[in-house]
Amino acid sequence: MVNADRAWQIPTANITISDTEIHLWCVELDRPQSEIQNIAQILSDSELQRADRFRFYRDKKRFIARRGALRAILSRYLNVAPDRVQFSYGPCGKPEIAANSDCKGICFNLSDSQGLALYAVTRGRKIGVDLEQIRAVPNMEEIADRFFSQQESAALQSVAAEEKARAFFNCWTRKEAYIKAMGDGLSFPLDKFSVSLIPGEPAKLLNVEGDRSAAERWYLKELVTAPDCIAAIAVECKGDRALEIINWEW
Questions:
Q1: Which helix (H) or strand (E) holds 173?
Q2: Structural domain 130-237, CATH architecture
Q3: pLDDT reading at 241 higher than 70
Q4: Which H or E run contains 151?
Q5: pLDDT digit string (tens) for 177-191?
Q6: Structural domain boundaries of the chain?
Q7: Which range, of 10-14, 113-117, 148-152, 241-245, averages the lowest pLDDT?
C-alpha cells in the first residue's frame, strides 16, 4: 500500500526520511545566470569539467543546475555541506553516495527532460526514476517491436491512435525506472520483462523472465510532474509495510 496523495511542497530546513518513505524532488533547471554561477561553486572539479564539455550553453547550465540540486538535496539527508557530498559510480554509471561517506542508508536516483529534473530518495531501498516529455515518435511500433516484450508490443497495438504516444511513454518510463533501480542500465534486456502501459491503468511490473517473484518485490508508480511530461518510479518492496510518497520542490 502506498499513500501518494500529497501536493508538491517547499521543504523545511531539516529533513528526515524513514525507511517507509519515498521522497520525490521536482526541480526546474532553467535558472537565472546569477544562480547558476552560485551553484557552480559547490560542484567538484570533475563535474565542472563535464559541464565544459557540453556544446550548447543551455545544456551546460542545465547540467550545473542538475548536479548542484542533487548535492543540495542529498546534503539535507547527510547533514553535510553540499560540496562535501562524495559520489561513486556503478559499472553502468549509476551514481551512488561514496562508500567512505556516512550515507545513512540513503539511496537515490534522478532523471531529467526538457529543463525539468526529478529526484527520488529512499532509505535502504533500491529505487529508479525516469522522466520523459510526451512527444511524437517516428516508427513507434518498430521501436516497440525492437525493445519491448511481445506482451507490451501487443498491448501497444491495442491502444487507440490518440493514446499511443502516452502508452508508449508509460511503457518506456516504467521500464527505464526498473532497470535504473536494478543498476543494470540498458545492459539489462528490455524485452525480458513486461510492465503495464494502457493509459488509465495502474503502473505495474507484470513479469520478469527467470524471476517469478520479481513482480511481488517491486512497486511501480506513474508520477504527475508537468502537463506534457510523464514519469515513473520503481522501488524495492520489503514485506508488506506501507510506503508513503512525499513530494518536495527545490
A1: helix 164-182
A2: Alpha-Beta Complex (3.90)
A3: no
A4: helix 150-157
A5: 999 999 876 677 899
A6: 2-123, 130-237
A7: 10-14
